[in-house]
Write a structure and sequence with these properties.
The chain is mainly α and 151 residues long. It has one domain (28-150). It has six helices and three strands, in the order αββαααααβ. It has helices at 3-26, 43-68, 72-81, 92-97, 100-122, 126-146, and strands at residues 29-31, 37-40, 147-150. Helix 2 (43-68) packs antiparallel against helix 6, helix 3 (72-81) packs antiparallel against helix 5 (100-122) and helix 5 runs antiparallel to helix 6. The chain is elongated, with a radius of gyration of 20 Å. It starts with a helix and ends with a strand.
Length: 151
């Protein structure tokens, strides 16, 4: 390989590495005035993320309702609504703007909703599901303490 080819290869690898870091790890972020990490999105992307968070909250409310009535069918139905299937259709451009830890936390939250739904169906144990919901809510609290969505 000649010197010119080597230089071009090194430059291309640096660009790819920078893109990987930005797209996969860091996302489109900045430090906010309140100490949290700002995730910078356009208006449509922001609305999509906030709509998903409101869906989480609605699911949690319905799960609580189901638990108060000892209605595991209601619990499972609403937990499933916020499971992994809810991630389908997220645009890749949006995913690229989200930092890795945010993506991990979101994925774990969806998985916890799915597990809660399965356990509500299979076990029907209200105390077990309540413990799962408590664990799931720690993800929500952690996310809101760490991140904020801005335009």
């Amino acid at each position: 390989m000649n010197k010119k080819c080597l230089s071009i290869t090194v430059i291309l690898l640096a660009i790819i590495a920078a893109g990987f870091y930005k797209f996969i790890l860091q996302g489109s972020t900045a430090k906010s005035s309140d100490g949290r990490i700002e995730i910078l999105l356009n208006d449509n992307e922001r609305n999509l993320v906030l709509t998903e968070m409101r869906a989480f909250l609605s699911s949690v409310q319905q799960i609580n309702q189901g638990l108060s009535e000892n209605n595991m069918e209601l619990v499972a139905e609403h937990a499933r609504k916020s499971g992994k299937a809810a991630q389908a259709g997220m645009p890749g451009t949006l995913v690229g703007k989200l930092p890795l830890q945010f993506k991990k936390l979101g994925g774990d939250t969806h998985a916890k909703f799915d597990q809660l739904a399965m356990d509500a169906d299979d076990l029907g144990d209200r105390d077990h599901v309540l413990q799962q919901l408590s664990s799931l809510m720690k993800n929500c609290v952690s996310c809101h303490a760490t991140y904020r969505i801005d335009i």
